[in-house]
Each structure stands twice: as structure tokens, then as C-alpha cells.
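Exam review. A common question shows you a sequence with its C-alpha cells and asks you to describe the fold in words. Practice with the pair below. Do the first one on your own.
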Amino acid sequence: MPKSQTLEQQAYEIIKKNITTGIYLPGSHLAEADLVKDFQMSRTPIRRALARLNNENYIKYESHYGYIIEDITISMQEMIYILEVRLSFLTSCLKKAKRKKLVYDKETLRDAIDAIELAIEEKNTLQFIQAVHILDNLILYTARNNLMIEILLPLWERFIVGATDTVFSGRLQSDSNAVEEYTHIITHLEKQEYDEAIGALEIMTQNLIVNIFV
């Protein structure tokens, strides 16, 4: 961990990673005393990290039992819902961009597609999802829709945690058109062809939803 991180942040990230990677299994208990010993930290940063994870629904506190790992599996219906919300928000931002004649930074757009392409080449699902999220944020930030960013972030994080080995994983393995789809979207943004970008987003979302059921 970087030295600039607080002990609380270090504990938070280690515990969260252990949950999302299956090292800590759903239904198992987390004892503060064990974590203090394992991480060589005092109780205070451990306790604060556990409180954060409890608020984010990775764990839950039960009297007489302490913290228990939650099942973070996401259902197909939840994945579809998140994708539909994402499409709605991005579409709204692109309509605003068209209305206000906003211009997207071409260099940043190309950096985004390079990151997506690299993740697909390396078949790195998490890296791919993170690269797509960066592109989403670029669309949202340029349109200055901060409320949408706040709403979408926890949904997207839930999607990442629950869907890493499902929809995107299968897409990376079997669909060579993913880079082409995102390239089309970025090309349209560069040319300020916002209606076309919306259409490309709709097609891509439909393909992702179909992929959920494959």
C-alpha cells in the first residue's frame, strides 16, 4: 500500500479486496481482534474500515455475532437495471452536450479507447470495466451532471463487484467487436455527432444485456 494512505484506508481496501475476490466467504465472520493481529494495526482504523464496509453493504453487524460477510452476488435483473440507468444518464448528458454545443477533449477520449483496447487484449475484466467507467465519467463530467455521477457511482461499483466474472468476462472472451463499438462512440463524440453517439450507446447496451443471458 502507498505510504500516503491512512491505516483506515489500507484496512478498508484489504478487507474489501478479500471480500470481492472470495478470500472472505459469504456468511463468514470478521473479528476485530483477528484483523488487528493480521494487519498489525490498532483497533481504531480496523473499526472505522469495518464501519465503512458495513455502510456499503459488504458486511453486516449482528449482535452477539459481530460482522458477517454479505453475499455480493448480483442478479441478472439487477445488472440489466444498472445498465439501463447508465444508458439513461449518458443519453441525457449527450442530449445536453448537443443542446449546449459542448466539446469533448479528443486526447482524453483517445486515451480512454486505448485503455479499453489494452484491457481487451489482455483479457483483464476489471481493467476493462474501470476503463469504461472512466469514459462514462468523461461524458458525465463534461455535461456537468454531478448528481448523476453521485447516483451512478455506487450502482457501477455494485455492478463491478457482482458482474466481473459474468457479462463483461464473457464479452472479453468472445466478442471482438467491443473495441469497435467504443471506437464508434468516441469518434462520434469527437465530431460532436451526439445523436449518433446515443444510437451507438443504445446498440452497445443491448449487446451487453443479451450477453447477460448467454
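Now try the second one, then compare your answer with the model answer below.
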Amino acid sequence: MAHTNESVVSEFVFLGLSNSWELQIFLFSFFFLVYLASVLGNILIIVIILSDSNLNTPMYFLLCNLSFIDICQSNFATPKMLFDFFVEHKTISFEGCMAQIFFLHSFVGSEMILLVGMAYDRFVAICKPLRYSTIMTQKLCIIFVIISWSVGILHSVSHLAFTVDLPFCGPNEIDSFFCDLPLVIKLACMDTYEMDILTLTNSGLIALCCFLALSVSYTIILKTVRQKSSSGSSKALYTLTAHITVVILFFGPFIYFYIWPFSRLSVDKYLSVFYTVCTPLLNPIIYSLRNEDFKSAVRKLRNRHISSWKN
């Protein structure tokens, strides 16, 4: 790369979450369980959706893709963080740091657009139920997925194109457990004010636009649901609660990081842990455990395996 001749820094050092050995053991145990639950939970969602023909609907197709993104997000930094709990000198190469930035923003950008697609699916299902099958076709669902990944990758590349050529000559310590873009930019040996503005504009605008689009969509949907009094509306309201909960918990920290003033607080890295480690667990917990159709599919799959085991 062209930056290697100008940059003295070949690796970055993570300060981690704590210097206490006892606390690090506790954090490792907790985050390992969260990581395991996130990966296995999202894999289970994909397996069940693909194995049950009753879940062959646009909503579950998009949910299946959301689970795949969450699996990817669970693995871009968490395994290294877990390993680093047992390492005194927590380092990452320059290339590894840039890779973390690329993957994080690719997955987050993709998930934002996919959540908008899921909101549109619920909007059509509740506000235009008679036209649902003609509007929410398989082709449209595939287009949503392609657009989500395309936007995510372009969003990430736009960040990386400016970051990779910044001159880094020290210091090289990052007060976090992964390469958080705003913290990495601040280590550059130059005035990074314009870069900060570019980062806020890029990430902040896409997050804010998606959040506003989701807010408007769910407001219209909730208003439509309130005007109905059928049992189907109650089921729709129950499903919407799960969707809205995920949106708030997903967008809240991201908007805080990229729209808040440039100064960062010491508590921010703990919020980063929630965002990168715990957020992928929201999908299996909120979408699946609260969804009767999904729980029914789980029971059917379990009974099928029990029957085959007995035979």
C-alpha cells in the first residue's frame, strides 16, 4: 500500500475494557456466553426458516438474511476481544485494523437498509394486505438484499478510502477493544477535523435517514393497526413491537456515536461492547422468542427429530 512509506505505525494497541485480571475473567465468561448465544441463535433461525415451508414468506426471508448479517457482525471483532482478555499486550496489525473498520461498516450499513426493507414488508402487509402477494414478490425481496449489501459495502469503502492513506506516526493506542473509526482517525499525525466531519456526514446521515424512514413507516403502521380491532391486528401489533424494539436498540448507540460531538467519554467503549457484541443477540431473542409462528416451527422441528430418534 502507498501509506506504508509515510506511516511509522505498523500496529495498533488496544487498551481493552479493564486492567483487573478478575474483572477480565468475568467479562470473558459473560461475553463468551453472549457470543455463543448470538451465533448459535442466529444459525438456528436460518436453519428453522429454511426447513419449514410455512415460513417461506417475505418477512422470514428478510429475517433469515438479517440473521446472516448478525452472524457476520458477531465475528468481525468479538473472537479477538475474547482472545485478548488473556493477552497482556493487545495488538492488531494496521491491515487488520483497516479490515475491522471495513467489515463493521459493511455489516452495519447492510443491516440498516435491511431493517428498512423489513419495515416496508410490514407496511405492505398491514396497510395494503390485499396487494401484499403482488407487491412483496421474491424478486423484490432479493432486490432488497442486494441493495442492502451494496449500500453497506459502498458505505464502508467510502470510509476506508480516506482512512487507509492517513499518516500514522504515533501514538498508536486505541481506548477500545476493536478499531473504532473515530478513535483511529484521531491517531493520525495531521489535523483530522475535516475527516471527522466527513465521518459524521457519511455515517450519521445514513443512520439518521434510515431511522427517520423507519420511524415514519412504523408510525403509519401503528396508526393503521389502532384503527382495527381484529385478532389479526393484535398479532400484527405484537410483531411490530419486536421490530420497533430492535430498531431503537440498534440505531440508538450508532446515532450516539456518529452524531454526538467529537469528544468521547470513557463510558463509550462499554456502549461499543453492547453495540458490537450484544446487538446480534437481539435478533434471536426479540424476533424469535416473541414470535408464535417461529416457536411453532421450532416445536415441529424438535418433534420431528424426537420421532426420528425414537425410530
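Model answer, second protein: Residues 1-5 have pLDDT under 50 and may be disordered. The radius of gyration is 21 Å. Full marks require stating both points clearly.
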